[in-house]
Specification:
- The chain is α/β, with parallel strands linked by helices.
- It has one domain: Aldolase class I (TIM Barrel, Alpha-Beta Barrel).
- It has 12 helices and 10 strands.
- It has an 8-stranded parallel beta barrel, surrounded by 6 helices.
- The relative contact order is 0.14.
């Protein structure tokens, strides 16, 4: 692996090799998502707890201060919306030269394995990896499943992650599931945990994140359960403790309550 690729990957991680990514890319298919209408304002109180931001080039240029910014993972796939025909019908939306121009630490793309657009999105990933290797930029593959939540089991997610790694992704973002170790053990590149739908209470979030970390994940890529929460700073601080301080779910819950009440 070339120096530039190693350097960019290391910039996305803490000194412990673990990571807490903050995705604020939801607007690329959802529009002005609740609590993310003004993304620059949303992240101000919580950005200190993340290691990198995951966003589109439009939000990056319009809402993120380039001075002292956290490393950026640039969302480069899209082309469909929540009101369109099929969210899986994605293409590449951003040229690699623009990613270089923006000095990003990595790029992210969704793949929809098992959908009608499986081949298309996997070829998108292959093309992106080819272009990014030339510039030393790591690619994060996002194993998206759209609305088909029943697909989130170890067999399916293990398949998704392995295929993404085989095509050349340097990191894979996927959902937590039961027997999560079967997913991570079959993937030869680092795995980060996606947040999925917003939970009504905090402890289940802390429990699945802690379990995922114990079973081989290197970190977290979670947004809505933080910035849509009534107490986003408390959530961010508690999750940061699980990722970087090896806190248990109950310890994280105590941190959450202490921060919220304090």
């Amino acid at each position: 692996m070339d120096w530039g690729m190693k350097n960019r990957l290391s910039s996305l991680m803490g000194t412990d090799g673990k990571c807490m990514f903050m995705p604020i890319d939801h607007g690329y298919f959802l529009g002005p998502t609740s609590k993310l209408e003004k993304p620059g304002e949303t992240i101000k109180p919580i950005i200190e707890y993340c290691d990198a931001l995951f966003c589109t080039r439009g939000v990056l240029r319009a809402a993120i201060d380039p001075v002292g910014s956290k490393p950026i993972i640039l969302r480069v796939s899209g082309g469909t919306s929540i009101v369109g025909g099929d969210l899986a019908n994605e293409g590449l939306t951003t040229a690699i030269k623009d990613a270089v121009r923006l000095n990003v630490a990595g790029v992210g793309i969704s793949v929809f394995i098992g959908s009608d657009y499986e081949r298309q999105t996997l070829l998108n990933l292959g093309k992106l990896v080819d272009e990014c290797e030339e510039y030393g930029i790591p690619v994060m593959a996002v194993t998206a499943v759209g609305k088909e939540l029943e697909k989130r089991d170890a067999k399916y997610l293990g398949l998704c992650c392995r295929i993404a790694a085989e095509i050349g992704a340097k990191v894979v973002k996927t959902y937590w599931c039961e027997d999560f170790d079967k997913v991570t053990e079959g993937c030869p590149v680092p795995v980060v945990i996606a947040g999925g739908p917003k939970f009504d209470t905090e402890l289940p979030v802390f429990e699945f994140v802690h379990d995922g970390m114990q079973k081989g994940a290197i970190g977290l890529n979670l947004g809505r359960n933080i910035w849509q929460h009534e107490h986003p700073v408390a959530m961010a601080k508690a999750l940061h403790a699980i990722i970087h301080k090896n806190a248990t779910a109950n310890e994280a819950n105590d941190i959450f309550n202490g921060t919220k009440n304090g």
